Amino acid sequence: MTTNYDMLGRDELNDLEAILSISNSDVDEVIHTVRANSDVLFTWDYERSRPALVKLYEKAKTSQWNAETDLDWSIEVDQVAEVRKGQNADKSAFGEMDLKGTVFSTWGEDDWVNLGVEMQNWSLSQFMHGEQGALICTAQIVETVPWIDAKYYAATQVMDEARHVEVFAKYLDTKLSGHYPVNAHLKMLLDDIIADERWDMTYLGMQIMVEGLALAAFGFMQQMSSEPLLKKLLRYVMSDEARHVAFGVLSLQDFYQELNSKEIRERQEFAYEAAVRMRDRFLQQEVWERMGVDPKEALTLTLADPNRNVFSGILFSKIVPNCKKLGLLDAGDGWLRTKFTELGVIEYEDWVDTGAEYDSLDAVAQDRTA
Ligand SMILES: [Fe+2]
Ligand SMILES: [Fe+2]
User: Fold this and answer.
1) Domain range list for the chain
2) How far is the CA of 242 from the centre of ligand 1 (A)?
3) Based on the number of CB atoms within 10 Å of its own CB, is 351 exposed (0-12), middle (13-18) or buried (19 or more)?
4) What is the value of pTM for the model shown?
5) Could you say which ligand is closest to the alpha carbon of residue 242?
6) Yes or no: domain 107-369 corresponds to CATH 3.10.20.600
7) Model pLDDT for residues 53-100, shown as the tens digit of each residue
8) In angstroms, what is the span from residue 350 Cα to ligand 2's centroid?
9) How many angstroms separate the alpha carbon of residue 59 from the centre of ligand 2?
10) What is d(CA 171, CA 233) in angstroms, rounded to the nearest whole number?
11) Residue 1 in this model has a pLDDT that exceeds 50
12) d(CA 89, CA 100)
């Protein structure tokens, strides 16, 4: 873990300068070690006592897909042409903003296209690293969760996540034009989720927060993209992800009933902390470095773009209703409701929660019926 992170308070850390001061210094590292602190639990109670998880497990068994044969990898992808298509309506990363006097005032069309290419390389790279985080967290849940139905289900998710790492890695290698190492802030968030000794925090951090955000981000990219291979890849990944988020909701719902108010508050704070970190610290700083632009100058501009708030709001469209369904929004004195109101994302509270929608997102089953 980076030392200056531990020394800073959250407000200071969310300061742009502090965010940028933390970068991935281990870009050549191949193996990254995290110490897990949780107990590994056997259970001798094999009774199938959680019907919602039994149903989800059956669904996971029949909706498995094969990344090699269910996707058409012979499709040729012209990344530059795709980026140009996407930029037709909007030549810059800054919407309508006035760029006079900034480093971008001299940029021509090719620079903007290069930027679009690098942003796509960065995003897909972080998806890939995040998927590996999910692979590791789910393997950990198999070990740490006390219920047999959850161990069975989590085992299917381990397979799903392996497939997701596989497809993003293959798409990056064969269709795009470069990889990025894991973003330092993403790596720290994953490390913290893995290191927490309370088994349900792996669920809350990964299944509810990270996967909730990923599900929304994949949906956004899926709608924006016109490239058929990426579109189908994302549709299939999303159909798995919806089950994963549902797994979190269905598991934690029961468990949270048994917790006292102090324990619930810790979960609320954990959820809020993860939300702020994902919203304020995943800033594509490495893209600007690669483009030869001072990240601070570029990010000061992007953060001032009003469209950014709309987009970062959409990323919470799954997280907020799921937190509500778990009772986290209003527990205690409604602490998390107040915090999500301050973040400007409370409007999503009544959007459909993923515990209810995973069936309708099962693209794999839909394609097989068709
Ligand atoms: Fe995944
Ligand atoms: Fe997942």
Assistant:
1) 107-369
2) 9
3) middle
4) 0.93
5) 2
6) no
7) 999 999 999 999 999 999 999 999 999 999 998 876 555 556 667 788
8) 23
9) 15
10) 9
11) no
12) 20
